[in-house]
Design brief:
Blueprint lengths: L1 H13 L1 H22 L13 H12 L1 H4 L2 E7 L7 H12 L4 E4 L3 E2 L5 E8 L8 H11 L1 H5 L3 E5 L1 H4 L7 H18 L2 H26 L8 H29 L4 H28 L7 H32 L6 H6 L8 H12 L1 H16 L20 H13 L7 E6 L8 H10 L3 E4 L3 E2 L5 E8 L7 H12 L5 E4 L1 H35 L3 H26 L17 H33 L2 H30 L5 H33 L8 H6 L27
Antiparallel strand pairs: 1-4, 1-5, 2-4, 3-4, 6-9, 6-10, 7-9, 8-9
Helix pairs in contact: 1-2, 1-12, 1-13, 2-10, 2-13, 9-10, 9-11, 9-23, 10-11, 10-13, 11-12, 11-13, 11-23, 12-13, 12-20, 12-22, 15-23, 15-24, 16-21, 16-24, 20-21, 20-22, 21-22, 21-24, 22-23, 22-24, 23-24
């Protein structure tokens, strides 16, 4: 493979415009296809096999008016009471809106200062353009606002409005440019990784739009994919660019240096990207559509950035010539060596006393991970939004006027073809007598009188820890055969439990497949085991920090949250898949250089210090870029993206410091030659993968070429 990549990289550097034009045409074609036939993101929260899903399907079949999306209009008078005539007029305007099937009569709260109007749509929220629908709600209730009332919006429609993006991406790009300028001292060298990453990102995002035309893609998937794609895309280009600069420092001309960089660092990029894809595809095992599409969407972007790194980057490096070097280096004809004596001395120091450093690093990482033992997960809802958001203000007004349970009512759906209709009054009484239930509405029969629905209001809000026990108690002790409980709260209970049950199969599959791939690439058993253990340690520490920041509230206000919130149920699976792949990126780049030195010298300890000295700067720069990109997304208004940004930034920072600078050199020093141990039978069975350019022609044997003059 290395010879093929060498030829590809050298050909791109010699004929750069052909490759650039092909890439421009590809991006334009995919973008045009996305604009013409692409779809819009839509969430699919189908939870096959759960009680809440069975109840939802029963409501969809027997109560069409209750199966669509809903919106809540909360009207509040700062002084006095809300005028019933004004509410009636607003209700008439709401009934005239498209797709509205019914508008419940306005319901006054305690004291009459607050009123609640529930709007019921005939289509599910996944089939709606929630932004324009919310605008229509505002227009229909403008008379209430003009009359001096405070009007806020809650329910499914407003809670599913996606905030416009762009700010987080811009913050990440600017931060990456500054870091690259400081690292390389050249505007060209700093700009190339960004250009290449953005080209891959553009093609990948268009691919997501095309995917949305054939299946439901989660509304947060494009943002997550851009977050990961931007980070890894810049990193992949950075690793190849650094290897190319090493080639120029060794006296190679530009095409030869580019070919060798693609044959070595480019091959590492392919394996690192494949590891990320493996981790993301592990989300398929969740069997939850919204997670599966998040994995597929992010994988599309990662694959596009890998392709741009190994095909577009060599072309633009050929166009840039020697301008990837500092001006003074081009003038003097010398290039500083990539080796960092300070990092080499540090690695040797850790290697001489590995046990104290290994134990210290483990204690620190385990201390950071400890809060995760008390982590409580719950899907984000309106109660997790910043206080400036209208859905959060509606949530607070409803809780104050009607009680906290009104924000998460339970719906008991009864199939009367299986249950005794005479048992309905008794079912309502048993629900009302259940501990934790504040109120129960009279049963409502379907038009065919073959089903009934009973609304029950809990005493506490959806995020209260007691709500899970309440739903379990109703299912176990109250419901007769043919009855199921649903509603947002019950569905969240099922979703949280399903994610917890499927986390370990995903972890096992991703770790196992990544381990097998690393054994194949590095022809070692212990080094891949150590890599997997270190990655799991980084992820556990990130989980612990997330728990402390969000659940304990240590810094929640700095992130725009008025109080502590549970960790989103989505986070565990998503963070694991993304972090395991991203951490393996750094592991592949570091181990490839360490193994290169090991094969060259046979010195187990010296190869670790040499590999860390050569890769330390570039990995540090790459990590800083990723941390900057992820922290930019921590400012996103969506709680899932916010928590992902914080968690990914923390994990990458720990991975590039504690893990790469302390735990890895200490562990590899203790293992010594055992790092590269491979059973004889496995060594004979595995093909040899050359990550080090051994199949690339030596400089003296390369094809004849005309030396390229320095471009200043």
């Amino acid at each position: 493979m290395s010879r093929l990549l060498y030829r590809l990289g050298r050909a791109a550097a010699l004929r750069p415009w052909r490759f650039v034009v092909v890439w421009l045409a590809l991006v334009a074609a995919v973008g045009g296809a996305a604009a013409a036939g692409g779809g819009s993101p839509q969430d699919d929260y189908t939870l096959d096999g759960t009680g809440s899903q069975r109840a939802t399907e029963l409501l969809r079949d027997r109560f069409p008016a209750l199966s669509g999306a809903d919106a809540r209009v909360v009207v509040h008078a700062e002084d006095g009471r809300v005028d019933p005539a004004a509410l009636a007029a607003a209700s008439g305007e709401l009934r005239a809106l498209p797709d509205v099937g019914a508008v419940d009569p306005p319901r006054p709260g305690a004291g009459g200062r607050t009123a609640l109007i529930t709007v019921r749509y005939t289509v599910p929220v996944t089939d709606m353009e929630t932004g324009p629908t919310l605008d229509a709600l505002r227009d229909a209730t403008r008379g209430l606002a003009d009359a001096g009332y405070r009007v806020e919006f809650g329910g499914q429609v407003p809670e599913n409005v996606t905030a416009p993006g762009g700010v987080a991406e811009a913050v990440g790009i600017v931060a990456a440019l500054v870091i690259l300028l400081l690292a390389f001292g050249s505007v060209v060298a700093a700009g190339l990784p960004l250009v290449v990453a953005l080209a891959g990102l553009g093609a990948g995002v268009s691919g997501i739009t095309l995917l949305a035309a054939v299946t439901d893609v989660a509304t947060t998937a494009p943002t997550l994919a851009m977050m990961v794609g931007l980070g890894v895309g810049i990193d992949y280009a950075l690793f190849i660019l650094t290897r190319h600069r090493e080639g120029l420092a060794a006296g190679l001309d530009v095409p030869e240096s580019v070919g060798r960089a693609i044959a070595t660092a480019g091959q590492s990029v392919l394996f690192a990207g494949f590891t990320v894809l493996l981790a993301l595809c592990g989300l398929v095992l969740s069997r939850i559509p919204v997670f599966m599409t998040m994995g597929f969407a992010t994988a599309i972007v990662v694959a596009a950035t890998v392709a741009s790194a190994v095909t577009l980057l060599p072309a633009v490096l050929g166009l840039a010539g020697h301008r990837v070097l500092r001006r003074r280096d081009r003038a003097s004809g010398t290039v500083p060596a990539p080796d960092s004596p300070r990092l080499r001395r540090w690695a040797l120091h850790v290697g001489r006393r590995p046990w104290p450093w290994l134990l210290a690093g483990l204690v620190l990482m385990l201390a950071l991970a400890a809060p995760a033992l008390g982590m409580r997960t719950w899907p984000s809802d309106a109660g997790s939004e910043p206080s400036s958001n209208t859905v959060r203000q509606a949530y607070d007004l409803v809780a104050e006027a009607y009680g906290p349970g009104e924000n998460g009512p339970l719906l008991v759906a009864v199939d009367l073809t299986e249950a005794d209709p005479a048992a309905l009054p008794g079912l309502g009484d048993r629900l009302a007598a259940t501990e934790g239930i504040a109120a129960v509405a009279p049963p409502r029969l379907s038009d065919a009188r073959d089903a009934a629905v009973i609304a029950a209001t809990p005493e506490y809000g959806p995020q209260d820890e007691r709500v899970t026990a309440l739903v379990d108690r109703i299912r176990a002790d109250v419901l007769p055969p043919g009855a199921e409980v649903t509603g947002m709260t019950a569905a969240y209970v099922d979703l949280t439990r399903m994610l917890a049950d499927r986390l370990w199969p995903v972890i096992g599959a991703v770790v196992a497949t990544s381990f097998v791939m690393l054994v194949f690439v590095f022809r070692s058993v212990l080094a891949p085991l150590k890599a997997a253990a270190m990655n799991l340690l980084s992820i556990a520490a990130a989980y612990g920090v997330l728990t402390a920041v969000f659940q304990w509230g240590w810094g929640a206000e700095l992130l725009g949250l008025p109080h502590s919130v549970p960790v989103s149920s989505f986070i565990l699976l998503l963070m694991f898949a993304v972090l395991f792949g991203v951490s393996m990126d750094y592991e592949v780049f570091l181990l490839s250089r360490v193994r290169e030195e090991w094969l060259r010298t046979g010195d187990a300890r010296g190869s670790v210090s040499a590999g860390l000295a050569v890769t330390g700067r570039v990995i540090t720069s790459a990590a800083l870029i990723m941390v900057a990109v992820f922290l930019g997304f921590a400012a996103d208004p969506g709680l899932v993206i916010k928590q992902m940004g914080v968690g990914l930034a923390v994990a990458v920072a720990l991975d590039a410091t504690v893990v790469r600078l302390v735990l890895v050199p200490a562990a590899m020093a203790l293992l010594g030659r055992g790092n590269w141990w491979l059973p004889g039978w496995l060594a004979r069975a595995l093909p040899t993968v050359d990550l080090h350019g051994g199949a690339v022609p030596a400089a003296a044997d390369a094809e004849p070429r005309t030396p390229e003059p320095s471009r200043t």
